[in-house]
Amino acid sequence: MAMSRPDGEGRVKPVVFRQRLAFGLLGVLFLASGCQSNASKPTGLDNTRFMSLWETYGSCKAASDLNQATLHMERLSAATQLREGNEGVVLPLPTKLESLVTNPPTRFSVDVPAMAAACSLHTGQLAIQEGRTDLARDVFASVVALREKVSSYYVLQARAFLTQLERGIGGLLKTPSF
To answer: Model's pTM, two decimal places?
Structure first.
């Protein structure tokens, strides 16, 4: 125990100082590595969600059955709503620090509302092919309602389909060209 006491001059012995310094550095490294290991977990979860959404989108675009396309369209639309409502992780912080910290956004590698709009257009076309003009009208109107969130390309296509629905079904089976 003589090593942990100050020597006669009031200084800590070099051996004890090195031990404390090493212990302190190990503690800092342990804390830093713990923070880094937690940061990689959401990335894996986002990748799984992204792949699931991408598969749903691909299945929707390849679907020739209206019921399947409708299910995929609803799932993509729900993912769009979920993405908007996600507030991120809430950390307990002192009030003074809360104003300086923003929640991290959920990031996807693709535009989920655009995928939902493209799937909806395809579903609307399938509805027309099956004579379900009421469903097609609702689906195209839902794309027009997304005008704030998606490219005007999808909105213009949906409006063109709605216009053609008003005129008659004759030319609806082809995608309008712009």
So the answer is: 0.59
